[in-house]
Amino acid sequence: MSAAKDEKRKSAVYEVQDPSTTEEATPRTEHGAKSTIKDVVTADRTGHRLHLTGLRGVLVLESLIWTFFELFIPTLVSELTPGPEYQALLRKIFSVPLWDRDLIHNFFIILSMRTICNSFLENPTGQTYAATVVRRIIRMVVILCIGSGMATLIFTQIGTGFIDDFKGKLPNQTVKTPAVAHNAVAAFNSLFDLFWITTDFYTQAANTFWPNATLWVPSIMYFQSFTVYFLMVILPYTRPKWHIRGLGLFSLGSFWMASWGWYSATGLMFADIAINETLRTELKRGLRIHKDWRLPYWTIAVALAATGIALKYTWAVLPQYINSMLVLHPYLDLSENYSPKTFEASGPYARLDDWFIICAVLLAVELFQNLQYFLSFKPLVWLGERSFSIFVSECIIFWTSGIKLWLVLSGNGMSTAGANAIVFIVGLLAVATFAEIFYRCVDLPSRWLAKNTYFWLVD
């Protein structure tokens, strides 16, 4: 190998952790590169910023709870399906901190944007930048196509009639029955569109084929990652004190347009604060108000959290106003293609109430070492490592075997509560097994493929 190629190998970095992504930056030699490739196919992952993986693990637990409740106890997640009063009360009290759909999904998106830029910001070289982009594209294409393809194939073969039967017997008026691809070309096109559409993420075919219609989340992550790639390349070469102002101006513009860009800029901003020593020092000193008077950032985190939680509880009690904050996006009233009503009907969007809570949590994570220590707890990191695998397995298992098992138990005279309990226990074991298989057979090999493809390109 030539000296130039050796130099390229030495500057190769990172490791992508999941579809939403974390990329660790570690210089490699020729020998080191081979060692990293070997490490990538093992389940035991080590590295810095484990607290971010642990935070993803917390979101995985909340996502699992929401998926089960939405399907089998829908009154706990939505007012669309009437149920016992105590379930409606539990929804109003506990759904916000524990299983709020919008908060979970939007947190995943911002956390993804927070992690994908770590490698480049820590080691801003051309090789690091190319590696971050190339490896992530390959990895997400592999895992999304396999995950989506599996779900589409399964429902094509077994149909969706049993889901309609289940919805009538439970009853469940909250969820929609997944669509079925009418031929192989439609299924292939749905996979192709995952990586090319720039609007209508929720109504795309792949999302309608997906059980519980949540495939739009990784699709948004993939699309918005290019916003981060565009913005992050500027930061290492400009004055740190202008970073927050510049990203803030970009966020205001995208907020005006009601796009997802302000979520991407938020994630990048927190990554920059965590890595840039100048910004970290300012974070610890507090927000300067006047001369030597500074306001500690933990007070800002408390204010953001209080505002977001107050808004979320308001929507829980008065759900008819849940989309009232769309009036804060002036573009929707000026656009020829959108209005607040049509935008609301097009599917989930970047919400301001969720943004307040997410920013409060990320601020607290950056400020308090004890919180980082807690989030680095090994079981949480283990769950975070397998976040996409668990996402795939929980959707497929509960919407196929889980529903079929519930119908059998209910048909044999078991109570709804008893059937739900058995389905949850059996489903949890099945999800854990399926997720581990997917992780080892798809997730880890996709990392190996992404790594070696990049090495092949630079060689």
Overview of this structure, please?
- The protein is mainly alpha-helical and 459 residues long.
- It has a domain at 3-71 and 100-271 and 379-458.
- The protein has 22 helices and 2 strands.
- A two-stranded antiparallel ribbon has the order 1-2.
- A hairpin with a 2-residue loop joins strand 1 (287-290) and strand 2 (293-295).
- The termini are close together.
List keywords for this structure.
459 residues; mainly alpha; two-stranded antiparallel sheet; 22 helices; globular; disordered N terminus
Shape field: globular
What order do the SSEs take from the amino end to the carboxyl end, as H and E? Answer: HHHHHHHHHHHHHHEEHHHHHHHH
Oligomeric category: single chain
Number of strands: 2
User: Which band does the percent of strand residues land in?
Assistant: under 5%
Mean pLDDT over the residues: 89
Class inferred from helices and paired strands: mainly alpha
Largest sheet: 2 strands, antiparallel
Tell me the distance between the termini. Answer: 9 Å
Read across the widest sheet, the strand sequence of neighbours is: 1-2
Radius of gyration: 23 Å
Count of individual helical segments: 22
Catalogue the unreliable spans: 1-47
Approximate helicity band: over 70%
Organism: Zasmidium cellare (Wine cellar mold)
Protein name: Acyltransferase 3 domain-containing protein
Transmembrane segments: 141-163, 215-235, 295-315, 355-375, 387-409, 421-439
Biased composition (Basic and acidic residues): 1-12, 25-34
